[in-house]
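re: that chain from earlier
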Amino acid sequence: MTPANVRIIKIEWGHCDPAGIVFNPRFFEWFDAATTELLAQRLGLSKPAMLKRYDIVGIPLVSTRANFLTPCVFGDEVRIESTLVQFRRSSFDVQHRLFKEDGTLAVEGFETRVWVAHDPERPGGIKARQIPDEVLARFGMTRTETS
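^ sequence. v structure.
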């Protein structure tokens, strides 16, 4: 499977704990940004334009996890490859693979997100909405039949 988005990050001191190792929550921050870039690239829309075009409020994260295989440290340059791996009716899964300069896989991240709109029956509430077929087509994918 070819990654849909590649992002390069230079590890700065502010990304690290006092030992110079990347503070784990930073990876989730980078993965979030990579998901936004992945969608923008494939849909040809910025996030605000995507929200407007599809009349949604967002794509909130409902599940995430990571496997930390080797530390990333101050001064490293890392490459994040992000791929949308599955669409369901209103949710989708993204895989992120973060590689060090020598090609070593350092972190694997996984996200599940939900396509949501305002809930007309609950003012201020949100409700899952079916992901449009047009979006699936931009990724060359089909929908599985679970939620």
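The chain is about 20% helix and 35% strand.
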